Amino acid sequence: MRRRLLLQVTRTVAALAAVLPVAAVAAAQSASGPVEVDVAHSDTYGDYLTDRGGTALYVAVAPGKVDQVNKSDTPPVASCTAACLQVWPPVLSEGAPQAGDGVAADKLSTVKGPDGGTQVSYAGWPLYTFAADTSKGDTFGQAVVPPQGAALGAAWYLIAPDGSVILTQPPQQ
Question: Can you give the residue ranges of every domain in the chain?
Answer without folding.
Answer: 2-158
